[in-house]
Amino acid sequence: MHEQPDKASLSPSKEILLAADSERRPRRGHSPARSRRGRSLAAFSRPIGGSTKAVLPDRPSDAAYDSANFHPRVISRSPDSGDALEPCAASCILTRVLVGPKERSLFVDKTLFVLSTEQWGLNLVNSIARARRSTFSMEIESKTVPAADAASMAEHDAKNDTEQFRGLRRIPDKLPAVALLILVVELGERATYFGLSGPFQNYINNPYAPGSDLPGALGKGQAVATALGNFFKFWAYASTVIGAIIADQYLGKYKAILCACSVYIVGLVILVTTATPSAITHGAGLGGLIAAMVTIGLGTGGIKANVTPMCAEQYQNSHPVLKTLKSGEQVIVDPDLTVQRLFMWFYWVVNIGALSPLITVNVEKHHSFWLAYLIPLIIILISASVFVWGRKKYVRVPPMGSAILDACRTVSIAIKEKGFYNARPSVLLERGHADKYPLARQERYTDAYVGDVQRGLKSCKMFLFFPFYFICWNQMWNNLISQAGQMALHGTPNDLLQNLDPIALCIFIPFLDVIVYPLLRKYKIDFDPVTRIFMGFMFASVAMVYACVLQHYIYNSPPKSIHVWIQAPSYVLVAFSEAFVIITGLELAFTQAPKNLRSVISALFWLTIAVAAAICIALGAVSQDPYLVWMYGSLAIVGFVAGCLFYVCFFPGRRKWSPREEVVIEGTSQ
């Protein structure tokens, strides 16, 4: 680390101002650095004791600091120049910056080179402004140097930074403890959802016959049971859009989740009371089931759309940090890897909750359906109480009343202007088109915001392929259960094997996070999101091939002669596919979405499950004997082709980490 500059050698005759040129033309009567849009980005400096001391403001919104649209400039101001702000006349300025937070000692000594009013060392000052919420103090030493020397030094400095960051190991950050409270409500909701949906197939398919090996209630047959099960799944995931709109536009995520929990509880009360033996024998079972499905599905959607982004929002760091470990190793703490880890463990918690059918299907078999459904009701009551208990600890993003409308209007402007680049307010101003669109005259409509909407739509284009995956995934919850009923059970409930999926995921997710992904990063293997999703499609396709072959042997063997546990690989293969497709999809839905539309983009991801469920409803005619071999085989082909097309479409444009990415320097970890 360089020695600090001699304060006596610093000239107080000139102040340095770091101002943001966000590619927006300032309003009339406002200087570039003092325009209303740039006011929170400026760092003013004042001479203090022979040196120049600058104070960065509190961290503004991420959108304001979008790296693609943030172009700081160095501006000089003499003490006697009043409020006039003019770009530096000197050809080059050599600037040494010492930066540190108020509560710590200085931890960085970095030489930055400013070659003109538009080019400078973005990879430090901009990084610090984005990565810390606290106020920073900066000691700045400036002097004019020949342009050629400055250019040479800047090129050498940039090259050294690139090589330094390129070779460093990247690691995820620690997960925020407050996120665990939000995971509790997701754990409870998933335990409730899977706990009540696990017995659905038997509840609808088989007739009410106490003492039978196969428990039942309504006796509507496999086709109706599969159709109603798919309807429930369709409605539960389609209603995520309703929950997202309510959260992003009106209530915010916290209040939306609370309202959804209340609706959920009402639906479960209906289900429990209409699943008693007396209600079933009096014909109230089917009507009560449908009413419960509609109500519970609405509650599921409200929770599902909001709990994922709210959990991820508890992690506030948004920029890579160069960190020195106790061992002396320098690493980059990558927020992208942290978000990836958070969603992996989020989905791990989901699958802990998905083990609840281990209890409910056995209660269904050995006691009754109403008691099996009472257990999920108790679980959701407990998890909602824990969620409310932590209400003062959460990071809450307030709702933006016009968020969805603004996004739609932005897309409309992009269509009319023939591209998102032309829809940027800076470009609209240059072309004289800004007055054509009322939104373009609003302060919230920035170049960064247009880029956010464009990025969110790109992730939505990826989601177009997901229904083909979820058609395969959906077979676990209906047709594979019925397939198990055609096999030799030997005392095993036919709907018990579906629990192999969450069990496999509870083992596989930590294996990926602790062993596989760190090993890939160690050897610089880029296992990017597109490749992960492609791998998931392939696992799902192989699972359907296995189910197809198994169904063929069931048809060509004596009744109930094949042991039910031979079906297990289908569930395990689907579990492997989930670890790559669903977790990565959740990650993309959060990281690629505008901050005020995260619930909506997350809901669009979950909506792909609803689309898949609707397709499965249409396939109800072939979801029965003797067409099951052809159905499983067709799904295997569809999954394989969709995965290949996804890879071809998105692999060329996949996101890679760039060594030019701005990195914040931190001190040694404690």
TrEMBL record:
GO BP: any one term: oligopeptide transport
Classification via InterPro entries: MFS_trans_sf (IPR036259), POT_fam (IPR000109), PTR2_symporter_CS (IPR018456)
Region (Disordered): 1-43
Entry's family note: Belongs to the major facilitator superfamily. Proton-dependent oligopeptide transporter (POT/PTR) (TC 2.A.17) family.
UniProt entry keywords in alphabetical sequence: Membrane, Transmembrane, Transmembrane helix, Transport
GO MF annotation terms: transmembrane transporter activity
A Gene Ontology cellular-component term: membrane
Compartment list: Membrane
Topology of this chain in the membrane: Multi-pass membrane protein
Top-level division of the source organism's lineage: Eukaryota
Bias kind Basic residues: ranges: 25-39
Pfam families: PTR2
Residues passing through the membrane, by range: 234-251, 256-273, 279-300, 345-363, 369-390, 463-482, 502-520, 532-555, 570-591, 603-623, 629-650
The protein's name in its UniProt record: Putative PTR2-Di-and tripeptide permease
